[in-house]
Amino acid sequence: MESLLILAEYQIALISTAVILGLVVGSFLNVVIYRLPVMMQREWSLQCQELLASENPESIDSASAAQYTAFNLVTPNSRCPHCENAIKPWHNIPVISFLLLGGKCAKCSTPISLRYPVIELVTGVLSGLVAYKFGATWLTLCVLVLTWSLITMTMIDFDHQLLPDSLTLPMLWLGLLVNTIDLGLGVTLQDAVIGAMAGYLFLWLFYWIFKLLTGKEGMGYGDFKLLAALGAWMGWQNLLPVIILSSLVGAVWGSAMILFMGRDKSIPMPFGPFLAGAGFIMLIWGTELYTLYNNMFYA
After folding, report:
1. Looking at 124-169, which runs of residues are DSSP E strands?
2. Cβ-contact 161, 136 below 8 angstroms
3. Rounded to whole angstroms, how far apart are CA atoms 257 and 269?
4. Strand intervals (E) in 44-173
């Protein structure tokens, strides 16, 4: 009995630590979600300016290029987008500061988007779930990094229909590393490598078949890389369930947006968030879902 109590206390402490860490990381993810696409856009603009300058040096104002050097994940400090007032550290405590401020800027009282505390809460809850599933292991730390990246990619894709290589590719390599040193996912390196290749090639083939038949682009290359990353983590065996689950949820979500929110059918809908969600579900509950499926159809 005493050993069970000690185990329960240990689990509670582990999960609580993961939740708190997730809340803090969620606050940082809000920064990444907003700034990373801006940083990428500025980098592309700077590259275009440099290309133009190489062809016609007089056409580019050197000062215009210099303005892009002071915007990254650290600089400048976070500010209210309405009044430009710098956010104090005690106004940036995950969730708590939002509640204490009544959801408004401390200076100008402009409403703060509910999205910020929601992302913090979701990151905290999912981090606790990962810790509960995998315990105090190196695998937990790696899956936390994947989870935080999936949250970031989901929101960036919703906002910009963009899945940055700086997120998808590191997750692909991390998945291969996790299965190379066998941290406990039960996926062989061979299955992980095949999963990465098959994940990319499956959506790549779908993309070109759809484009040849319709003349339209059904998805972006970031989706290929995200599915490749999920294949590297979970092996090729889990790719089909991820694709089926993400497609079903995406179809339901898209239909609901059209029917109830009046979304224009011609506006493309990002697929990355559904891939990310399906991948996380299979990573956490894949075994249970397979067991449920077998019991339902082969019992």
Report:
1. none
2. no
3. 10
4. none
Average pLDDT per consecutive 10 residues, the chain (299 residues; last block may be shorter): 75 94 96 93 83 69 54 81 80 88 84 93 97 95 98 96 96 97 94 97 93 85 96 96 92 79 74 95 90 73
Q: Phi, psi (5° rounding) for residue 53?
A: -65, -35
C-alpha radius of gyration, the chain, whole number: 22
Residue 284 CA to residue 280 CA, distance in Å, equals: 6
Query: What six digits make up the tokens of 238?
Result: 């889990």
CB 68 within 8 A of CB 43: yes
pTM of the predicted structure, to 2 decimals: 0.92
Identify the CA nearest to 243 among candidates 294, 179, 200, 298: 200
Q: 3-state class of 86 per DSSP?
A: strand
- Which tokens is 258 given? 């059209």
